[in-house]
Specification:
rod-shaped; two-stranded antiparallel ribbon; 4-stranded mixed β-sheet; about 260 residues; about 20% helix; alpha+beta
């Protein structure tokens, strides 16, 4: 074979290989297309049934609403388990549901509040609630303000086990209204007896009557002994002593002279 013939055969082989490669390549597509799942293998086909959602596990917690007598009323609400203190406070800020409204229950807390933090410190028995709100103070005045704070105090202490409570609003500590006035120190449930339905004031002891002193018996006077009636003693009659006896036979006019 001549050299030129060999070169021609090599060029022809390369051309054939190029054509075969072009025929076996995946064609390019300039736009997306929906896949036909019926032509895909079973392990790549989309599932025909959606998976069942994982059931949400909940638990009941106690929050405090307000009854028609303006007293706190404990109510059970369901939250995701385990119940985080923040979730409990968020449930408190939710409006009363239909069943609660039928029982004439309401809330003094505004709904436009974000619960930022609920922190319990066992070392000083204190739970601190931090809120973010532009309307909290504006919506709460007078009696409503004390009721709203009492709802927070009772709900937070109920679900954390703390006895002392403090409130932060927009990053600043808030003085709290109590039965005895504004308090800058942490408060407890005892500061809200006026709205606590379980508070039973201690009965005022009745004054003990002192026994009436018994009068000492008056001494019975001894019977008076009548003074003896003096017996009159007869004075002895003065009988003149008899004069000297004159001898008989003297004349009548005879006298004795004793001078």
């Amino acid at each position: 074979m001549t050299r030129s013939a060999a070169l021609r055969r090599l060029v022809a082989g390369l051309a054939t290989a190029t054509l075969l490669a072009a025929a076996c390549s995946v064609p390019e597509d300039g736009r997306p297309r929906a896949l036909d799942y019926s032509r895909l293998p079973d392990d790549l086909a989309a599932p025909t049934e959606s998976p069942e959602p994982t059931p949400l596990i909940t638990q009941d917690v106690l929050i405090y609403l307000i009854d028609e007598n303006n007293l706190l009323s404990p109510v059970a609400r369901s939250v995701a388990s385990p119940a985080l203190p923040t979730a409990v406070l968020e449930a408190l800020f939710s409006a009363p549901n239909e069943a609660e409204s039928q029982q004439a229950l309401s809330t003094a807390l505004p709904a436009e509040v974000e619960v930022v933090l609920v922190e319990f410190n066992p070392s000083n028995d204190l739970v601190t609630v931090a809120l973010e709100s532009e309307v909290f103070e504006e919506r709460l005045e007078g009696e409503n303000r004390q009721l709203a704070v009492a709802q927070l105090v009772f709900t937070a202490t109920e679900n954390t086990g703390a006895t002392r409570f403090s409130l932060m609003l927009n990053g600043d500590p808030v003085p709290l209204p109590t039965d005895s006035g504004e308090s800058d120190a942490p408060v407890t449930r005892d500061d809200f007896h006026s709205v606590d339905p379980d508070y039973q004031p201690e009965p005022t002891p009745e004054p003990t009557e002192s026994p009436t002193p018994t009068a000492a018996p008056e001494p019975t006077p001894a019977p008076e002994t009548p003074a003896p009636t003096p017996t009159a003693t007869a004075s002895p009659s003065l009988t003149p002593e008899p004069g000297p006896t004159l001898p008989p036979g003297l004349p009548p006019d005879f006298r004795l002279d004793f001078s």
